[in-house]
């Protein structure tokens, strides 16, 4: 499983990891029924504490995306809605914008400009 | 291409045919056989064990199912069919094993035929045994030869693919890949051996020195089997790390600096000389199970291949990391 984190993301690590896993599942890298690598292996690869990775996986379990089973590890229960994944990313964007001092309507303005530019290129 | 479709019906048909023949063929002769039959012969060649006919037939069928089980499973699951080498071995085992069981049963029946008591059964000497093994080996060779038709088929996602980077990583993005491969049979064998080692060490029936030697050698085999029962592979900005076995120890780390590129290949134990850590000139392989392997080529030109699931994404990430490293340098 491939996970990507953004080092500039101001949110707590466990939220970022949860988002990365959610995105990997939403994109179909890992499908419902597939087993996830154990938390300790994810943590070792990401260079974070095992508890941080576990916390991320527990969040996803509470969302109903993952399932923990004794002796069988963690497996994917259902793919998250793409909308949830987008919401995650927008939340991160808004938080970063806030750090630069932008207001929400200014971010929306940027999004609109970019969308119009993309529309214009077609 | 369609030739391969015939292997499964023929293999299943052969398995059923042998099982039926072993049980049914002697039935018309039951009047001329003693009850019980001589079914076991000692080293001297004289019959020293007997059992009723139904038990003899049951043992023969079970023996046959044990022999035929693995090749049938591998043929039907499909992976043995694709490669001529595997296919030939499976067909050789099926043909040789089937004839072996039939010859064994024939030998038993002939030795008992027209005797009133199993103790009078004809002796079985080295000549008879040689004949049984010879016929089986011949049948195995015929099975081997017959399994030739049909090409080696490589599944569509196969062959040495050129390295293909994932995409350029954005600055400030941390990407990692984690995957694994496990061989279920090695886990079972290793755990069984470990249990046996503990039992040998604890239980009293053996003499002390024998017990220690046996326990230690069993223990060492158990650890070796467990260490090679699985790998955990990770790729991150530091490079590649391969951890062996359930304890994730030992760990082999390959720093990103040493890696030139990565790609995916399909390799099988037969290609690299067996399971485990196989070293060959120019290329080492960590062979846990046949199939998809992640291959890294070092700057020195040597290669390391690791059998692991989802190898493609791992290779893509490695190539992206290598590209990023080279950009930083220039």
UniProtKB/TrEMBL annotation, chain A:
It comes from the Bacteria. Coiled coil: none annotated. Pfam families: GntR. Residues 11-79 form the HTH gntR-type domain. GO terms for molecular function: DNA binding; DNA-binding transcription factor activity. Keywords: DNA-binding, Transcription, Transcription regulation. This is GntR family transcriptional regulator. It comes from Thermopolyspora flexuosa. The lineage of its organism: Bacteria, Bacillati, Actinomycetota, Actinomycetes, Streptosporangiales.
């Amino acid at each position: 499983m491939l996970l990507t984190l953004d080092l500039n993301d101001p949110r707590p690590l466990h939220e970022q990891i949860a988002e990365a896993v959610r995105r990997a599942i939403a994109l179909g890298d890992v499908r419902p029924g597939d087993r996830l690598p154990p938390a300790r292996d994810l943590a070792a690869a990401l260079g974070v504490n095992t508890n941080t990775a576990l916390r991320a996986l527990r969040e996803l379990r509470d969302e109903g995306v993952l399932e923990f089973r004794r002796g069988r590890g963690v497996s994917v229960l259902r793919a998250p809605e793409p909308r949830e994944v987008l919401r995650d990313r927008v939340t991160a964007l808004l938080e970063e914008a806030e750090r630069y001092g932008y207001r929400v309507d200014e971010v929306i303005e940027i999004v609109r400009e970019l969308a119009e530019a993309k529309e214009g290129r077609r | 291409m369609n030739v391969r479709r015939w292997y499964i019906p023929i293999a299943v048909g052969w398995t059923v045919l042998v099982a039926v023949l072993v049980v049914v063929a002697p039935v018309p002769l039951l009047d001329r056989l003693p009850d019980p039959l001589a079914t076991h012969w000692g080293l001297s060649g004289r019959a020293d064990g007997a059992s009723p006919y139904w038990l003899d037939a049951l043992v023969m069928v079970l023996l046959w199912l044990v022999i035929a089980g693995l090749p049938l499973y591998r043929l039907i699951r499909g992976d043995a069919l694709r490669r001529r080498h595997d296919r030939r071995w499976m067909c050789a085992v099926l043909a040789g094993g089937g004839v072996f069981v039939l010859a064994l049963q024939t030998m038993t029946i002939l030795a008992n035929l027209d005797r009133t008591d199993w103790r009078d059964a004809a002796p079985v000497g080295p000549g008879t045994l040689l004949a049984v093994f010879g016929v089986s080996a011949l049948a195995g060779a015929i099975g081997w030869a017959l399994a030739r038709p049909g090409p080696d088929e490589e599944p569509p996602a196969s062959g040495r693919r050129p390295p293909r980077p994932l995409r350029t990583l954005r600055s400030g993005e941390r990407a990692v890949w984690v995957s694994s491969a496990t061989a279920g049979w090695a886990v079972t064998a290793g755990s069984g051996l470990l249990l046996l080692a503990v039992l040998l060490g604890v239980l009293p029936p053996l003499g002390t020195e024998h017990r220690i030697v046996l326990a230690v050698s069993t223990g060492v085999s158990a650890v070796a089997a467990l260490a090679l029962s699985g790998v955990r592979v990770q790729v991150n900005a530091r490079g590649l790390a391969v951890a062996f076995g359930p304890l994730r120890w030992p760990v082999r780390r390959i720093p990103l600096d040493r890696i030139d590129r990565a790609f995916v290949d399909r390799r099988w134990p037969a290609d690299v000389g067996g399971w485990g850590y196989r070293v060959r000139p120019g290329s080492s392989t960590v062979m846990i199970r046949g199939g998809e392997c992640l291959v890294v080529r070092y700057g020195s030109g040597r290669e390391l291949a690791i059998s692991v699931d989802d190898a493609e994404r791992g290779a893509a990430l490695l190539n992206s990391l290598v590209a990023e490293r080279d950009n930083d340098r220039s």
